[in-house]
Backbone:
């Protein structure tokens, strides 16, 4: 009706393909080509839909896609081209080969309940939603999920995958899943509850002695009813359903902004001069504590609403690895660790491109070909590992490969040609060498390929990560592999900070970075060869950054003993900050610096943003990473 002929043709062709696979199965040797064809059609449909949204003309010539689909259908069916174009036969009994393939596709460990009835006495009967289409296939999805959690199971009906007639039986009697041990049954009940199509489920108690199978137990219950006996009521559980609602992200942004204003207002109320007077009513103190408690709870809820799993970003990398493996003729496995880790939606949206670039970089630069790996004594299959870990106040995301690592000599040679070396090559540490890779326009590929060599490299990753308050570090061992670690805050809106003063200026240090606070005297200070001040704490030496000297401010602390020392740490460095006084802990709302300050490169000078304090004054939030780097 809409005259989207290309979209109609492609979707119908893919539908024909799916029908053939569903009804007759597919030989294992065609699986890879099938996936390629499905990916190609999926990409085409997405591109065409984007054209529809942008009112652009759709692709008209799709003869190449039609030809490839028809040829593939001919191969998997073994039919002549004219036979393949005929209407599909109605579903019937699949051939012996298809039955064998369906049997091979059964979930690992799942077996039909045909023999050994007495060995599986613990059972659960699951009923599905009345409006669930194809309940037998929904049952098979549940069986597959259960078998992944607990392998040794049996189920009835046993042919739910290949026999369409089992749909009526599942609708009437539900799905019966039997277990050898009580522990197995208990371990999957939560999974059954959360399954999207579950309506209810009934746990069937094992007969005395635990030797009667679940199906026999059901027959026993039926017999008892016929005799007029009373069957012990088995617990019936209503499945836990998740009620979800789609909310525009802009509304959540406004909610977070309001939450920030509430935090600021709460600080204003509790820090008002009248509130600090000695004669203040005790009821006010109680009320202010309750207000703080409710504000904290509200903040946690608001922040949790914005949290989403990073799995969406991680799983997209599987397609990239697969496509590049075929293009570069490399055999690579992608391993995902901690993909359920939740972070702020804004961070997830910004971290996708850096991770994609790092994965492509690992595929192109890091992982060797199969022949090279075998020659180096490595497994033929390379590995790229994506890891996400929540450490409390921040998230660590790493992209690691077991490839050839970074060629130190090659990086130094390229840096020398670009005039970046300021000292002898021998004097550069590994960290300094790797820092060249994070510079704009630096690429070790001499030839421009589809994937690299254009001078747009790790600097893009570094810039994007720093824009969301994170930082990037790189480690590598030649011949062993490379690891890129991104350290990113869980949220960008509200942080717990420690306020310190330097003269009349107030700075805020994120509490996550603070390791220790202490007083010191001048006798504990020593100097290095460049006359920089160092302090020894527990037999370790740490550099000192005096904020008044760094930012050229007037200080009220005339001597080191008059001020306070704050030991701070990043993922790669620990050092000390000297300030006049400690003003106390406060939750602050991070406000971005005005755009016109970007011309002064303020962020690179150790300032991450600013916050409005309870008295209306402004506090600068220190960027602990950049403060150390620019000292």
Residues:
């Amino acid at each position: 009706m809409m005259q989207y002929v290309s979209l109609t043709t492609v979707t119908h062709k893919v539908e024909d393909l799916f029908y053939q696979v569903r009804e007759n199965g597919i030989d294992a040797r065609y699986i890879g080509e099938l996936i390629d064809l499905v990916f190609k059609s999926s990409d085409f449909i997405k591109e065409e839909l984007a054209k529809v949204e942008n009112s652009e003309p759709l692709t008209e010539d799709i003869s190449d896609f039609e030809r490839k689909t028809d040829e593939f259908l001919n191969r998997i069916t073994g039919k002549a081209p004219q036979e393949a174009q005929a209407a599909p036969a109605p579903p019937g009994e699949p051939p012996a080969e298809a039955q064998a393939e369906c049997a091979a596709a059964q979930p690992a460990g799942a077996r039909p309940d045909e023999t050994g009835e007495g060995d599986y006495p613990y059972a659960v009967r699951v009923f599905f939603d009345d409006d669930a289409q194809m309940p037998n296939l929904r049952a098979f999805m549940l069986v597959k999920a259960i078998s992944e959690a607990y392998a040794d199971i049996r189920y009835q009906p046993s042919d739910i995958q290949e026999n369409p007639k089992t749909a009526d039986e599942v609708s009437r009697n539900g799905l019966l899943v039997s277990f050898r041990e009580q522990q197995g049954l208990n371990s999957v009940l939560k999974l059954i509850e959360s399954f999207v199509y579950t309506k209810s489920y009934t746990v069937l108690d094992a007969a005395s002695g635990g030797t009667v199978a679940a199906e026999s137990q059901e027959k026993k219950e039926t017999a008892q009813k016929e005799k007029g006996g009373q069957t012990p009521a088995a617990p019936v559980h209503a499945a836990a359903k998740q009620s979800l609602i789609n909310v525009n992200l802009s509304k959540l942004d406004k909610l977070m902004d309001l939450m920030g204003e509430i935090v600021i207002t709460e600080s204003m109320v509790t820090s008002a001069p009248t509130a600090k007077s000695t004669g203040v009513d005790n009821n006010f103190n109680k009320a202010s504590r309750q207000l703080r408690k409710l504000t904290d709870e509200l903040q946690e809820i608001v922040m949790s609403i914005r949290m989403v799993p990073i799995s969406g970003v991680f799983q997209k990398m599987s397609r990239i690895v697969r496509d590049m493996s075929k293009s570069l003729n490399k055999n690579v496995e992608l391993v995902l660790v901690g993909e359920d880790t939740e972070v702020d939606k804004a961070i997830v949206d910004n971290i996708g491109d850096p991770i994609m670039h790092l994965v492509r970089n690992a595929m192109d630069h890091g992982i060797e070909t199969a022949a090279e790996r075998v020659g180096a004594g490595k497994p033929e299959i390379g590995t790229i590992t994506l890891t996400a870990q929540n450490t409390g106040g921040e998230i660590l995301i790493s992209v690691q490969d077991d490839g050839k690592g970074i060629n130190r000599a090659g990086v130094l040679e390229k840096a020398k040609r670009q005039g970046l070396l300021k000292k002898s090559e021998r004097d550069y540490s590994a960290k300094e060498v790797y820092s060249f890779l994070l510079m704009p326009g630096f690429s070790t590929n001499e030839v421009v390929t589809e994937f690299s060599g254009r001078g747009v490299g790790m600097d893009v990753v570094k810039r994007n990560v720093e824009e969301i308050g994170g930082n990037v570090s790189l480690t590598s061992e030649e011949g062993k592999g490379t690891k890129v670690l991104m350290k990113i805050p869980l949220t960008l809106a509200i942080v717990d900070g420690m306020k310190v003063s330097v003269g009349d200026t107030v700075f805020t240090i994120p509490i996550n970075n603070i390791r220790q606070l202490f007083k010191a005297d001048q006798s504990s200070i020593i100097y290095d060869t460049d006359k920089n001040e160092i302090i020894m704490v527990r037999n370790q030496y740490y550099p000192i950054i005096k904020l008044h000297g760094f930012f050229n401010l007037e200080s009220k602390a005339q001597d080191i003993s008059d001020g306070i020392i704050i030991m701070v740490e990043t993922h790669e460095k620990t050092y000390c900050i000297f300030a006049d006084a400690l003003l106390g802990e406060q939750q602050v709302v991070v406000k971005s610096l005005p755009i016109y300050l970007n011309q002064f490169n303020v962020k690179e000078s150790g300032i991450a943003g600013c916050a409005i304090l309870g008295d209306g004054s402004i506090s600068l939030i220190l960027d602990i990473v950049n403060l150390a780097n620019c000292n």
